[in-house]
Every structure is written in C-alpha cells, then in structure tokens.
Amino acid sequence: MAPPTGILLFYLIIASSFSPLIISTAHLNLTLPHQHPYPDTVVLEVHRRVNESIARRQILVDNQCESRGNPIDDCWQCDPNWAKNRQRLADCSIGFGEGAMGGKGGQIYIVTDSSDKDTVNPIPGTLRHAVVQEEPLWIVFASDMLIKLKHELIINNYKTIDGRGANVHITGNGCITLQYVSNVIIHNVHIYNCVPSGNTNIRSSPTHVGYRGKSDGDGISIFGSRNIWIDHCALSHCTDGLIDAIMGSTAITISNNYFTHHDDVMLLGHDDKYLPDTGMQVTIAFNHFGEGLVQRMPRIRRGYVHVVNNDFTHWQMYAIGGSANPTINSQGNRYTAPDDPNLKEVTKREDTNTGQWDAWNWRTDGDIMVNGAFFVPSGQGIANKANNVDPKSAVLINQLTGNAGVLGGPRDNSMSMSKGGTTGASGSGHDQSNSGDVDLVGMIFSGTGASAASSPSPTTTSILLSFLIILSLYITITNQDGQLSVPLLLLL
C-alpha cells in the first residue's frame, strides 16, 4: 500500500494538471435559459412587422394616425387615447426583447418627488422607491423632473419607467442598473452625465439592502438580465458606456433611441473568454447614432445581434466592432462615413488577425452606404443574404428614425446640457451607514463594473478541489483496507 503522503501528492499533481479544465467546464453550457433557439426567425418577424407598418401607411386614407411605418410607434401612437391605456406599450416591442412585459398588469405608480436623498430607505413618491418594489408597477411622472441620483438606481423585476407626457431627466451618480432581473421597460427619458459612484449600501427590494462597490458610470448597465426593452430615450455624456449588456444578459431590444456625444457607446458582452455571452441576443432598431460619437455602436463579444433600420451619421473610429466570433446581422441601415479617408470602414474586428475572423458571420443586407462608407462582411455574410429578405425599408430610413429619442420635445440632450448641470466626462472607456430597520440578509451587491468576474476565483476553486481530493483520499484509505479503489475525484 502506498504511503498516504504519496497518494496525496499524486492526487494533488493530477488536480493541478486538470484544474483549469475543471474550472472551464463549469462555463461550457453555451445556451442561456431564455435564449431563442432560432434567432433568424426573430429577424424575419421584425421584417414582417416593419413591412406591414409601411404597407399600412401607404394605404391609409384617414388622418387619425400619422403612421410613419415604424411598427413600435404605430402600435400605440395610433390610439388617440393612448394616455388612458399606457400599458398598451408593453405589446409594442419587436425583436429579441419583444417579451419584455415591464409593469404590465400592475398598478400605476406616480412619481411626485424628484429627490434622491436616501438609498437605503427611499422616500415614497420618489423614483427610487418605485423601482425597488416587488410587485409589477407602471411608473409615470406627475410633472417634468430632473432627477439627480445619489447613487446607482437598482431596478427590480417587472417595472416600466414611462416618461411620456413629462420631460424627465435622469443624471448623476451611477445611473440605472439592471442586475439579475427580468421584464424591465425604460421609455422616453433623458439619461446623461452619469459618473461612477458607490462604496455604499443601496436598497434593491423592500427586504434587501446590499453593499455596492464603485460603479463604472454607465447610463444603463444590464448585468445578467433578460427581457429588457429600452425605447425612445436620449443618452449622452456618460463616463463609461451609454448602454452596456454583459454577463449572460439576453432577450434585449434597444430601439428608437438618440445617442450623441460619447466615446464607447454600447458594449454587448463581458469579455472574450466569458462563454455564456454566446447566448446573448440583442435587437438594435430605429436608433439615431449622431453627433460626437466615436465607436462601439455596438461593440460585440460573442452572441447574436440584429442591427436593423438605424441611421449612423457620425463615428470617429468605427461604427460596429466585435471580437470572439459574434454574429452580426446588419440590415437596412444607413451608414454615413466621416470625411476622413481613413475612417470609411463601418466595421472593425478587435484584436484579431484576418485569418481568425474569416469565418465569423458578419452580414450586410440592404444597407445604404454614404460618403464612401463600406462594410466588410465575412463568413456566411459573403456568400448569402441573411434570410433572403429584401429590407426595402432602408430607403425610408428618415421616416423610420425621424422620431428617435425623447418624444414631445428636444429629441437629444443638447438643450438640457446647455441649461443644466455639470457635464460628466465624455467617456474614456478604458475599460453610508444603514438607518432604520434594514434586513441585510440576502442579496449583497458588490463589484467594480463590467470587468469584474462573477465566477469564483481560481484560488477559491483550488481550495475547494483540494478539500474534495483529501476527502476522497480519506475514504479510499479508511474504507478499502489498503486496496486502492476508484477515487471519488473521478466521479466529480
């Protein structure tokens, strides 16, 4: 019988050799629970909805609805009494985030107080108090408001923030965070001047408060969340991304928004090695990418992204980039290149040699290229059209994106910036005590932003693995009377 120390040493050598494999296999499930199994069918449905709205506009004979052919807007704006049936909006999304219910079926919560004084015990009537409640809520605003956040606004499941009928501005520290939640709609609000904050306690629900580390300063941060729809917002001047979706987020639609004055506009995917983001699916439709933008419209890691009927009028590096073999399906967009002859390419493969990205599926179908812009396709994008569908709506890009941004006033944030408060950094992109009776048991938020990993560290995993090895060794030695049997390690 081998000495116990010899067996232990043998096991530790084997464990050290295979521990990277053991660690990595924990992430080999590439299918997210709510990932659509046939993403191209979602693309086809988007085209059907667009073409249906365009056809309806062409045959319209009355003046009750000034249809623009935008299926989202036509869905609710054609009802002259929409304000009496606000929750109809929840039926109007398209694409991968079509299932986002928001607060549909819940009560109307009217925000009457624009203050944000206490992140642990928010005052009833404030936006922070509304978004942390457990039940579905449709949140509206009693009047025009400028909400200067003290720290991140952490939103609970089944909430709609509906700014229609008021001029709502959200700015300040942290801005909006969606973390491990589902069914959230954010509609018709200005979001800008978002700066990092944190290292404090923040309430996430009526029963949970957690310590929150320093945030990145995103306008909207989507972390491990699903069924999210962001529509008709104006976003600009944040420290990091205007919208970032990472850590296995999926079923997202980003539509009818107006993006200006920012460097790293939109990041989709945590990092190249985070395999669950392969299941990320995002629709980007009818947005205006405008003045002062530099790059990442979006920048994609893994996943499937449908970029359809957007108007790209400015970039200073590139419009759409990616790494780690994402699928990019670009259809019916208008890309207007800058005058600089070195910046005509729409696309950029990040940190990847040509031979490595030849098979990546980057498709362009029916896109309009202006001022020398060009899209470099690859993979299936070279040989085939995406779905044998002609996105004829590309020639109508002016009307499809004509209402992008906040409705009922300036579509972007230029007026609010000229009037308003402090202008945050335009985004370099590189990459209190509790009061009252607070239940600190439960969800604890911590982290340092998009680059923070959620999985256990290799050190923690190695300690756990070593414990299991020792346990299996003990069982082998004590129960087999010196006869070496199949160790427990091989059954893990």
Automatic annotation (TrEMBL):
Keywords: Calcium, Lyase, Membrane, Metal-binding, Signal, Transmembrane, Transmembrane helix. PANTHER family: PECTATE LYASE, PECTATE LYASE 18-RELATED. The keyword Lyase applies. SMART domains: Amb_all. The keyword tRNA processing does not apply. Residues 144-341 form the Pectate lyase domain. InterPro entries: AmbAllergen (IPR018082), Pec_lyase (IPR002022), Pectin_lyas_fold (IPR012334), Pectin_lyase_fold/virulence (IPR011050), PEL (IPR045032). This is Pectate lyase. It catalyses: Eliminative cleavage of (1->4)-alpha-D-galacturonan to give oligosaccharides with 4-deoxy-alpha-D-galact-4-enuronosyl groups at their non-reducing ends. Its EC number is 4.2.2.2. Belongs to the polysaccharide lyase 1 family. Residues 407-433 are annotated as: Disordered. Binds 1 Ca(2+) ion. Required for its activity. The chain crosses the membrane at residues 7-28. Pathway: Glycan metabolism; pectin degradation; 2-dehydro-3-deoxy-D-gluconate from pectin: step 2/5. It is an enzyme of class 4 (lyase). One of its GO terms (molecular function) is metal ion binding. Its cofactor is Ca(2+).
